[in-house]
UniProtKB/TrEMBL annotation:
Tree of life domain: Bacteria
Protein name: HmuY family protein
Pfam families in alphabetical order: HmuY
This protein's UniProt keywords: Signal
Lineage summary: Bacteria, Pseudomonadati, Bacteroidota, Cytophagia, Cytophagales
CDD domains according to UniProt: HmuY
Length: 460
């Protein structure tokens, strides 16, 4: 009996070894740019240039990139981070990572003709990684109309509670990441005078019956509830989740200063945002072209002041209580089409709508003129969708056309393959877009969603 057992064990080991020997080798691990061309117009000061690998590396791996500018000079008109040595960039892909990046920055007060370009070329990669086919990238200092590519958005750390929001500009093959908690208030640049809360942190606010910031103290917070919870009443403490600019918690800022009340703001803890102290604010108009923000901690007897001018190139200008100044958040309104982030939306408790924080929200830039539609593959496939389908596509100016509909977090977890999206940008270019991955179950990474898109019709 003992001999039989030994024989069977030996046979099992032999079988396992045979299976290992027959396993197919992994495909080459390639490093390449996300696209072959990227636009950088006059309003954009910097861009993050990404190199993607087919899969993560086990050990840190070096990549070198050659830099060849035309009509623009390194060091005086543009720089890179890290800096070049000669005309060579030395990058490192960290162990366990599948990407690397560098920052391209234009000098301040730089006036260009739009014909300037920089050619980046991956010249080498450390073994066992090989250089892929998209080994060259041309950055043009003007807007382009992309024919399509694949982009992986950098949500940073945090997974389902990723720390970054990412704005994507399809026509320019560009994506911009910003910390979700880097701002507190957004000031509308449109005709009305409106102020928004940071929905990405779950911020909430309530009005006081006072219009003097120094008269609001900690005593005014006694019994005050500013936590959203899963209560229908919580929706009254936040801006309209559909993005309707006429339904902000803070009403239109009056031209009559005395009508503008003090608000107490809970800066929120949504999406794993660390809790911060409550702040009291008051906003008044600064003539006809901007705002004046007054703010202080609840217990402070004096307040700080920040002037926020309107800028028609942007939907909003943003301010941070942490820095006491304006901060850069979303790009110029003509420079982004969709935003991937997390934020407060609504769900049902069976009877009423209640506030609920959704990860992986995708908003369209509806205030900037972008429209979109969801298309089910039972109607037409992604590959088959063409210019002839545009006329029967129901485009909507709805912030949540995409929303969280593109992925499933229960049941079969991953990107939904039964739908794709058609996006018409503000210039009139029409793109079709489908999500490829967003979590380990579909071959991706949570916090770094990947999608591909193709130009269906260029604006005339």
């Amino acid at each position: 009996m003992k001999r039989v057992i030994i024989y069977m064990l030996a046979l099992a080991v032999s079988t396992l070894n045979a299976c290992k020997e027959s396993d197919p080798p992994l495909p080459d691990n390639l490093v390449q740019f996300e696209s072959a061309e990227q636009g950088l117009d006059a309003t954009t000061k910097e861009a993050i240039i990404k190199l993607k690998l087919s899969r993560a590396v086990d050990a840190a791996m070096a990549v070198t990139v050659q830099v060849n500018p035309t009509g623009i000079t390194y060091g005086t008109q543009f720089t890179t981070t890290p800096a070049t040595t000669g005309n060579t960039l030395s990058l490192t892909v960290p162990a366990g990572s599948s990407d690397a990046s560098f920052k391209l920055t234009k000098a301040d007060n730089l006036f260009l003709s739009g014909t300037e370009t920089i050619d980046f070329a991956i010249s080498s990669a450390a073994s066992p990684v090989l250089v892929g086919t998209t080994k060259q990238l041309k950055v043009k200092f003007t807007s382009i109309v992309s024919t399509g590519t694949a982009l992986t958005l950098d949500g940073g750390t945090g997974g389902s509670s990723a720390v970054n929001a990412v704005f994507a500009d399809l026509s320019n093959n560009a994506a911009t990441s910003v910390k979700r908690a880097s701002w507190d208030l957004g000031f509308y640049s449109g005709a009305d005078f409106r102020v928004i809360l940071n929905n990405m942190t779950g911020a909430s606010a309530v009005a006081m019956a006072k219009n003097d910031l120094t008269q609001v103290t900690a005593a005014d917070t006694v019994g005050l509830a500013l936590t959203l919870g899963f209560d229908p009443a919580g929706l009254k403490l936040i801006d309209d989740v559909s993005g309707d600019i006429t339904k902000t918690v803070i009403p239109s800022i009056s031209a009559t200063d005395a009508d503008n009340k003090v608000y107490i703001i809970n800066r929120g803890t949504g999406g794993a945002t660390p809790a911060k102290g409550w702040v009291k604010i008051r906003v008044i108009r600064n003539g006809t072209t901007g705002y004046t923000l007054q703010y202080a901690g609840i217990k402070e007897t004096t307040f700080k002041t920040v002037s926020i001018p309107k800028d028609n190139a942007y939907n909003f200008k943003y301010a941070s209580f942490d820095t006491g100044a304006l901060v850069d958040v979303e790009p110029a309104k003509a420079r982004w089409d969709i935003e991937w982030t997390g934020g407060i939306y609504k769900t049902s408790d069976g009877t009423n709508d209640i506030p609920y924080y959704f990860s992986d929200q995708v908003y369209i830039n509806f205030l900037g003129g972008v429209t979109a539609a969801e298309v089910l593959t039972s109607t037409v496939s992604y590959d088959a969708y063409g210019e002839s389908n545009i006329a029967t596509t129901a485009f909507k100016s709805d912030k949540h056309v995409i929303g969280a509909n593109w992925r499933a977090t229960t049941g079969t977890i991953g990107v939904k393959t039964d739908r794709f999206y058609v996006i018409k940008d503000a210039a009139g270019n029409v793109y079709k877009l489908k999500f490829v991955s967003f979590t380990s179950q579909d071959g991706g990474e949570r916090g770094k969603p990947k999608f591909e898109f193709k130009l269906v019709k260029q604006a005339s």
